[in-house]
Amino acid sequence: MPVIFELRHTVQPHEIDDQGHVSNIEYLRWLQDAAVEHSAAQGWPKERYLATGAVFVVRSHQIEYLQPAFVGEEVKVVTWVNGFGKFTTVRKYQVVRERDNLLLSKAATTWVFISWPKRLPKRCPRELIEAFVIVPEDQEAGLLPTRRED
């Protein structure tokens, strides 16, 4: 069971905003794609969630943009689970430019597990929690070597 999951992506022309770099909306899309793919890789694709009668929805996102990304650049979105609560999970992310390991963005999302279709909070099942390795905050520093330009 991998501790972290990496989603690789090449920046596309349609992802560029009026300032000539990747739109912040695209970063959000990348984070969601990485979370969904990581979950599926751990045995929890959309169909399994629906079979349990529940899904995750976003409660909040926190994104810090550190450096811009441009068309044609190869990036990787790295994600891991920071912890589970009774009805929630916190997932962390780093967006890194591949060629020089420059940290472009870091983020965290709080997800809430809800019944479907009633949309009421539902306890995260044990088998879901056990499908992921939890990375506490004090262990994140050594997770991924990245270079920062402040």
Detailed description of the structure:
The protein is of the alpha+beta class. It has a single domain (5-134), classed as Thiol Ester Dehydrase, Chain A (Roll), CATH 3.10.129. 19% of the residues lie in helices and 35% in strands. The chain has 3 helices and 5 strands. The protein has helices spanning 24-41, 46-52, 126-129, and strands at residues 5-10, 54-65, 74-84, 88-97, 102-115. Strands 1-3-4-5-2 form a 5-stranded antiparallel sheet. The chain is globular and about 40 Å long. The protein starts with a strand and ends in a 21-residue tail after the last helix. The model has no long low-confidence stretch (mean pLDDT 94).
Give keywords:
alpha+beta, Thiol Ester Dehydrase, Chain A, five-stranded antiparallel β-sheet, 19% helix
Topology:
Elements: E1 5-10, H1 24-41, H2 46-52, E2 54-65, E3 74-84, E4 88-97, E5 102-115, H3 126-129
Antiparallel strand pairs: 1-3, 2-5, 3-4, 4-5
- What's the average pLDDT? 94
What would CATH call the class? Answer: Alpha Beta
Cα-atom radius of gyration:
16 Å
Structural class: alpha+beta
Largest sheet composition: 5 strands, antiparallel
CATH topology, by name, is: Thiol Ester Dehydrase, Chain A
- What is the strand arrangement across the widest sheet? 1-3-4-5-2
Distance between the termini: 34 Å
- Number of E strands: 5
Task: Assign a percent range to the helix content.
Answer: 10-25%
Percent strand equals 35-45%
Q: If classified by CATH, what would the architecture be?
A: Roll
CATH superfamily: Hotdog Thioesterase
